[in-house]
Amino acid sequence: MGTATGFIATFGRNDLRTVRRDSMLVTVMLGPFLYAAALWFLPSITGHVAREYAFDLVPYHSAIVSAFCVLGPPLLLGAVLALQLLDERDQNTLAALRVTPVPPATYTAYRAGSTIALTTFSVLASLAVSGQVDAWTLLLSGPIALTAGLLAPVLGFVMASLGRNKIEGLAVMRVIGLAVFTVPMIPFFILDSPWQLAFGVVPPYWPVRAFWSAFDGGTYWPYVAGGLLYNAALVGVLLRVVTMRLR
Amino acid sequence: MSGVLPTAVRMDFRLQRRYGFWYATAFVVLLWIGVLQLVPDPLLGPAMPYLLMADLAFMMFFIAGAVFFEKGERTVFALVTTPLRFRHYLTAKLLTMSALALVTCVVVVLADYGPGVALFPFVAGVVLMTLLMLLAGFITAPLFPSISEWLLPSTLVLALLNAPIVGYSGLYPHPAFSLVPTDGPLRLLGAAFHQVALTGWQWTYAIGYPALWIAGLCLLAKHVFHRHVVTSEGGR
């Protein structure tokens, strides 16, 4: 255990040293603000749609906010994780690590861990900056952000395992990106039906479902608990898969 | 058909298939067709220009991915030693990628909206929008050492290219938005789905202004490619 912590500290120190060299972290921090900034227009869009098309967007606010702030950061940071892993494989960094005393899964686990932390922070920051959620909803969003944080490596690992290289990874990302923004939104239209639970097989369902309850009221904890367990289990399984695939 | 350009086009189509772009596109088309069934009919027309614009934005990632990959695998340096000129290389990429984008849009629109779309502004809007997105990716990608470092700056480029939505939608109309080259293609898509009616000079602007940009960006692409890809090989 002690040595694993040591390895992780080494990776972390190395990352911090390179922050100055690459603009990555700065732009990662910008991400949530871009998502949040899009939501500053939500009240005027709502008014505009009501005037122009006589359509009331207010019942859809929780779905719109969740798409931008709860799904956006894990998708973006998951894609960054996948591209980093594929890049490092292509540049043989991962092969270099194999001749060091670091156990094979430690590096991937470290990448997943830092992605979870960054995504959790991004989700909370973007919700806070969006101006669309009250203090109570923001408080309830803490565990939701962690669920969304776990979603990031799930998406990133799937992208990195399905693509054999960067460019196939991008093709996979295109499909996953659209699927993540659309499929978990379908249950929003059938919330009264027990069939909505069937969407629980798709990992992004849990954080958005919990967010709708936090925003509009309703059952909340079962979705948070389900999401944390399911996504954490998937991270564990996919960690093995991706470590095997990237060798 | 023989000659350098047709050969380059054939090669790019083959690469697209090998990269998995065709499978990805087939999945994406099926997803769009399914998801758009959920959009209420009166909102479908107003929503289509935005959805197509969002979908076409991904072409920027595809072309950037191709640039990074071909640089990393060094196939691009092999091409430099062949009779293929830069204009053939770029034309083949733009042609094959816009063909892919156009086919995607045609299938999705026919399946969900029907044949009521106005053909000329639709095709012109999709093609001009795609070319702008492709060139934005092609020009910015070589400036970064790896795709993961390019990914996030690219979202800023994307935000700029999407800015005309704010004006077009009627939220905050401002003449400054018409300086962004994607404004014209967005208006063409609006006309295609009968959301806006364009007057004579608006047609000229919506087609001519992005076309000027595309010509300028092609020249810039040559410069960037030569400086950051071709000559960077010597620095290794």
UniProtKB/TrEMBL annotation, chain A:
Lineage, opening ranks: Bacteria, Bacillati, Actinomycetota, Actinomycetes, Pseudonocardiales
Record's keyword annotation contains Transmembrane helix: yes
Entry's transmembrane regions: 23-43, 63-86, 107-129, 135-159, 171-191, 220-242
Species for this entry: Pseudonocardia hierapolitana
Keyword entries, A-Z: Membrane, Transmembrane, Transmembrane helix
Superkingdom of origin organism: Bacteria
Name of this chain's protein: Fluoroquinolone transport system permease protein
